[in-house]
Amino acid sequence: MDVIKNRYKREAVEVHCPQCKRSQIIYLPDEKMPDCPVCRKKMIIKEVLTEGKY
């Protein structure tokens, strides 16, 4: 039962590179904050993606 509860704690977030504007979607806390594959800068959170947005 704990496995099912922990699965729903994941949050989908869109991260982007402040320098080259490349973006991707990751799941926190399952994944670490990535480095940009193009310019190697640390990516930052742009938006938390939730269902049912207007």
Which structural class should the secondary elements be placed in? mainly beta
Largest sheet: 3 strands, antiparallel
Q: What is the number of E strands? A: 3
Query: What topology, given as strand order, has the largest sheet?
Result: 2-1-3
Roughly how much helix do the residues carry, as a percent range?
A: 10-25%
- What is the C-alpha radius of gyration, as a whole number of Å? 13 Å
3D structure, described in words:
The structure is a single chain. The chain has one helix spanning 2-7; strands spanning 11-16, 23-28, 44-49. It has 1 helix and 3 strands, in the order H-E-E-E. Strands 2-1-3 form a 3-stranded antiparallel sheet, with no helix packed on it. It starts with a helix and ends in a 5-residue tail after the last strand. The chain is elongated and about 35 Å long. It is 11% helix and 33% strand. The protein has 54 residues and is mainly beta. The chain has a domain at 9-45.
Task: Compose a concise summary of this entry.
The chain has one helix spanning 2-7; strands at 11-16, 23-28, 44-49.
